[in-house]
Amino acid sequence: MDALPITQAEARALLAPLRRLPRVALAVSGGPDSLALMQLAARLRAELGVGLTVLSVDHGLRASSRDEALMVGRLAAGLGLPHAILDWEGRENSAASLQARARAARYDLMAAYCHANDIPALVTAHHLDDQAETFLMRLKRGSGLDGLAAIPERGAWAGIVILRPLLDMPKARLVATLKEQGISFVSDPSNDDPRFERARVRGSASAFSALGLNPEALALSARRLRRAREALDAAAQSFLATSSETSEAGYALIDADALEAAPPEIALRVLAQLIGAVGGGETPLQLAKLEALLAALEARPGKAHTLGRCRIEPISGRLGLFREMRGRGLPAARLLPGERALWDNRFRIELGANEQAPIVVRALGDSGLRELRDRSALASSLPRLAVRTLPSCWRGEVLIGLPMLGGLYGSEPSGLDCRAIFVSSGGATGRAEGAAQRSSR
After folding, report:
1. With contact defined as beta carbons under 8 Å apart, do 333 and 343 qualify?
2. N or C: which end of the chain has fewer CB within 10 A?
3. Distance between CA atoms of 263 and 134, rounded to whole angstroms?
């Protein structure tokens, strides 16, 4: 039986979560899933009362990628929707983990755009078939509960909410929706490339169906496991509320005794959440590495450890988690007056529109610490490991402000109109879910 297009009533129910948001961005690649999402959302935008912006990422991995993004732009314009193409620069085309790196880069680019344009949520077109494939891929790797719970309906990436309203909708119905409206779409050849794991799983769909492992059944299992994951996450959140502290200066402290006494599953989730928040890492933490860290903390509680771009060490009777800074250091970003940017996947920085000149935002570092001859009371109250990784504002080699410390330079206000907000509180769970990618959990 041919699949039926999605009805107006079904679309209204699917997209209901968008009603609570003033603006959202739609991730649209040119494939049938995301184009169907764009069509459905555009059809209901007045009723939903939500502003829509369409984002396409030109990853440059295929010669046709620019044309595909431009095609999305033409379709968006026909629907009266603004469209932006985001370029993935500095990529490496090595085959190792290429798809995972491309997914992480797409989310980083779109999250940065959302921060820069005051858009609180990103909507993706993951569907029921994606859910089933993810379940099988993680089952093959021996994943635990989190991995088998697969893709959530709601997640986070670098402080941006990620919504997936089509998770219970089969791909065939999305394709049927486009065909009914006479809308053409592109097919990514990597979807059928046996070098990639997801393509191999997809190519085995008929064999799985013959065993009764159809997408609907697999997605149902993932949905039921997700309920269990949500219960454990709630217990972890309760621990975080009573036994940890996350600072707006981008670091966290945990009651070490409480962590040691907690059930291992809760302790692992707490570590994953805080490492993700403090480190702002691009990829999910592997369960095996988290387990190794927890064992090391128990065996060597007085030692420092590193994981997920974080340094974890005892401090004043507690366990401190700080952004690690080594090798090439942290990124630098140039801001023009009135611009807003996401820095290090952790802080949203905004330079006042009335400023007369651009600034460069980079980590304060040891040299910046030396510049602070008369540190403010707030600066001196923070751990050194936290202060050195704070975003600081520079013109040339001159330090002109620390937005996280009220713009202070030394003991006096700098007069610089620059604000910073720590946005990475979504944590590792949010980033892992946001990517819907490889995880050994």
Report:
1. yes
2. N
3. 28
Topology of domain 8-222 in CATH is: Rossmann fold (3.40.50)
pLDDT given for residue 140 in this prediction: 77
**Residue of higher predicted confidence among 415 and 436:** 415
Secondary structure (DSSP) of 83-100 = EEEEE--S----STTHHH
Q: Contact, 323 vs 309, CB < 8 A?
A: yes
CA distance 284 to 63: 30
- Based on C-alpha coordinates, what's the Rg of the chain? 23
25-34 mean pLDDT: 95
Residues of the chain with CATH 3.40.50.620: 8-222
Residues whose CB falls within 8 Å of the CB of residue 167, separated by 6 or more in sequence, listed in order: 126, 127, 128, 130, 131, 151, 153, 219
Predicted model pTM? 0.80
d(CA 247, CA 414) in angstroms, rounded, equals: 23
Query: What does the alpha-carbon distance between residue 220 and residue 158 come to, in Å, rounded to a whole number?
Result: 29
Integer Cα distance of 97 and 264 in angstroms: 30
pLDDT score of 428 more than 70: no
Model confidence pLDDT, tens digit, residues 87-126: 987 655 555 566 777 888 899 999 999 999 999 999 999 9
Distance CA(379)–CA(360), nearest Å, equals: 21
Paired with 312 in beta bridges are 305, 321
Domain with CATH 3.30.465 in the chain: 242-323
Return d(Cα 46, Cα 49) in angstroms, integer. Answer: 5
For the domain 242-323, what is the CATH code? 3.30.465
Cα gap 321→303, rounded to integer Å = 13
The pLDDT mean for the chain works out to 85
Closest by CA to 92, choosing from 117, 60, 138, 130, is 60
Token representation of residue 350: 């905004």
